[in-house]
Amino acid sequence: MKKRMIIMLTSMAAFVAVIGFVKFTQIKTAIAQGKAWQPPPEAVTTIVAAKEEWASTRRAIGTVAAVRGVTVSADLPGMVQKIDFESGRAVKEGEVLVELDTSQERAQLDAAKAQRDLTRLTLDRMNELKTKGVTSQSEVDQAQAAFQEAAARVDEIQATILRKTIRAPFSGVLGIRQVNLGQYLTGGDPVVPLQALDPIFVNFAVPQQDVGDLAVGAKVVVTADGALGDGTVAGRITAVNSVVDSDTRNVQVQATFDNPDGKLRPGMFVEVRVVLGPPETYVALPASAISYAPYGDSVFIVGDMKGKDGKSYRGVRQQFVKVGESRGDQVAVLDGVSPGDEVVTSGVFKLRTGAAVIVNNDVQPGNSPSPRPEDS
C-alpha cells in the first residue's frame, strides 16, 4: 500500500512538471511574440508646412446703420388725399410723398386773403386822410397793425397747407408704405421709412485693450453672408467713441463704406476685419492639425523612424506648439513647426509618438482662409 502511494505521488509530480514546462514554454513564446508585434499603421492626411503672409487684423461683429435714416411721419393731422410714391423706390430730397386734405385750410386761406385785402384798402385810405389832416396818427397805426395781422394770418394758413404736403427730407430709398388712401393721420403717425444707403455706416465694438491699435482712417473689410456673395467691401474708420462702456469694457467704433449698389442695408449683421498694419509671416496649418489640451497644444510631425528590429518606417512624433490667431480654417503657428515639416492634418486623436502611419491625401480637411460652408 505504501509503495503504491509513493508511485502515485511520483507520477503526479512528473505530470505537473511536464505541464508546467509546456505552459512556461508557451508563455515565453507569447512574450517574445508580444515584444516583436507592432500595431498596424494608422491612415492619416498630411500637409507640408509653409509660411504665409497674414495681414495684422482685429475681428469683430458689426451692424449696418444708415448715415441718415428716419421714418417719415405726418406733421399735422389730416385725411390722406393722395399718395405719390411706391414702396422701395429711390426718391430725391423734397419729392412729394403724401398729400393730406387741405380743403378746409384753403377756404380759410381765401377768407384770410379777403380780410388782408380789406385791411390794405383801409390802411391806404387812412394814409390819404392823414395827409389831409383829417385823421390822427394813432388811427393810421391801428390800420397798419390790422393789415400786418391779416397778412400774418395768410402766411400762417399757407404754412399749414405746406405742412400737410409730406416730402422726402433727403435723398434715399423708401421702405414699405404704412398709410392708405383715405386714412386719417394724427400728428406723428408713420408714413414710410426712408434710408440714405450711400455711403453707409458699420458700427462695431472692440475690447478696450485694442483701442490703442485703432486709428481714424484705418482700413476695414466686411463680409456678409448672402448679401455680398463671396466678396467683401472695404471702408475706413471714421469715428472711435470717446467713452468705454462700463458694462462690457468695449469701445464703439464706426466705419464708413461706399454702397452704390445698396447691397449693405441698415440693421444687417456683418463680420468686420480691421487691418492694423503691414502683413506678418506665419506658418499656417489647418485647425484640424492642432491637438488642444490643458497641458499644451501640439501637432504630430511625420518622419522616418527605426523600429526595435532596426527597420525603418514612416512614423510620427508629437511636437508642442504655440498658436496665434485663426483665419477661416487656418491657425497661425508661432513656434514649434518649421517650414517643410510634414504635419498630420486629420486622425491626430488616434496617434502617439512613434506610431506608424500611412499617408492618404485623397481627401483633405478644410484649409481655406475664407471658408464658405454649404449650409451657411
Write the layout of secondary structure elements.
Blueprint: H1 2-36, E1 42-48, E2 51-54, E3 57-73, E4 78-83, E5 90-91, E6 96-100, H2 103-132, H3 137-163, E7 165-167, E8 172-174, E9 184-185, E10 190-207, E11 219-223, E12 233-244, E13 250-257, E14 269-275, E15 280-286, E16 298-306, E17 312-320, E18 322-327, E19 330-335, E20 342-346, E21 357-359
Parallel strand pairs: 1-21
Antiparallel strand pairs: 1-20, 2-15, 3-10, 3-14, 4-6, 4-9, 5-8, 6-7, 8-10, 10-13, 11-12, 11-14, 12-13, 15-19, 16-17, 16-20, 18-19
Helix pairs in contact: 2-3
- Overall shape: rod-shaped
DSSP strand (E) fraction? 35-45%
Order of helices and strands: HEEEEEEHHEEEEEEEEEEEEEEE
What would you say the CATH architecture of the domain at 42-53 and 280-359 is?
Answer: Beta Barrel
- Strands side by side in the biggest sheet: 3-10-13-12-11-14
The CATH first-level class of the domain at 42-53 and 280-359 comes to Mainly Beta
CATH topology of the domain at 42-53 and 280-359: conserved putative lor/sdh protein from methanococcus maripaludis s2 fold
Number of strands: 21
**Spans where pLDDT lies below 50 across 5 or more residues:** none
C-alpha Rg (nearest Å):
43 Å
Tell me the number of helical segments per DSSP (H or I, 4 or more residues long): 3
Query: Based on helices, strands and strand pairing, what is the structural class?
Result: alpha+beta
